[in-house]
Amino acid sequence: MILNDTTFRKLDQVLAGTDALLADAYPGDDGRRQPVHTVYVPADQFSFDTAQRWGQQALEAVQQRGRMRQLADLVLDHTSDPAYRDELAQLVERKLGTEPVEDLRIDFEDGYGQRSDAEEDRHAIAAAKQVAKALAEGSAPPFIGIRFKCLEANLRARGLRTLELYLSTLLEQTGQLPESTTLTLPKVTTVDQVKAMNDIAATLETGFKMPQGALRYEVQVETPQLIISAEGRSEVARVIHAGKGRITSLHYGTYDYSASLGIAAAYQSMDHPAADFAKNIILTAVAETGVHFSDGSTNILPVGDENQVNQAWQLHARLVSRHLRRGIYQGWDMHPAQLPTRFLATFDFFNRSLTSAVQRLEQYVRAESDGIMDEPATAKALARYVLRSTACGAADAAEIHQRLGLDQLALEHLASTGLVPQSAT
């Protein structure tokens, strides 16, 4: 053979750096559930039952103007079957009664403002106690944590004090760091701030006697310097890898970013061309890194007279559908009345292609073809789509497992590798 063991050993040496880069920097999706939204609540307004109250307020907002089915008629594609809209309306009502909030952030930053040190200390401790109570009573969302102040010079000491107080109280109340804990670092501008945050996390882990790497955090992309640095490169990609595995997600900040570009307030929105430019770069940067990506929020809330509410609902549903179609599976909600349109638009997005996705996966699992020959990369994408559908409640997991002949672990394996487990073949 011309290509022999010596050839391959040399090839392994030449490509050792590439192999290490791909394994370390681009490990692929790690199978973590990604919430469909993050709800922000000012720290002084949070309590253990906030998620349930938001769900009830969301239902009441719809009931004041009719029924969920009428809202579905208002915000969904009118070409869809009426029975389909009935089904979606029922699914959303059930969601709002059982898991109205998937991810909740107790806000000590923009939504909270500047308070005295004593007041913020009290709220940091109280927030942790209320989270512990919610966890004990089973009323906590799947993901919950705080957004503390940024690492800019005039705010970093206050923000990190809040973080330490919150964590110390939470650990005292629960005994260990809850798996649902999610921390958000806002207004990141440079890679050095991420490196500094890593050092802080490591110091807190040592002080709290936690395993190294236990404290992970999200980064908010709110400044143009992260999209294009002074050197003319994409700094956001460097931020991900500087996180050394601690960064769980990047969140786009609609209004801070738009304002930094000088966009007039009336035109600052999630669908502005400047926003799309930034988000396309972020989406590319997070690809295959295992880091999630979330869109931002709209500040047009469904409040006021009937016309204002209806227009806000239509806008919100359209923006949610828009970022889902662009491969961004999470966004922010700032008001309880945004929850119905969040879930209507999200459930509609998943259900419109769910039948086709499951059929294609059935053929892939059985190594059959009906006009479409999918490759492993496509099978991975289809499986992830199905997993997202079942995680948020848009589809019934047991029914899909039965159709595919795959349990949850096997479906997750398919989503991770594109390969059907041997036990299912």
Automatic annotation (TrEMBL):
Gene3D superfamilies: Phosphoenolpyruvate-binding domains (3.20.20.60). Keywords: Magnesium, Metal-binding. GO terms for molecular function: catalytic activity; magnesium ion binding. One of its GO terms (biological process) is oxaloacetate metabolic process. It comes from Enteractinococcus helveticum. Its cofactor is Mg(2+). The keyword Magnesium applies. This is Aldolase. The keyword Metal-binding applies. It comes from the Bacteria. InterPro entries: DUF6986, Pyrv/PenolPyrv_kinase-like_dom, Pyrv_kinase-like_dom_sf.
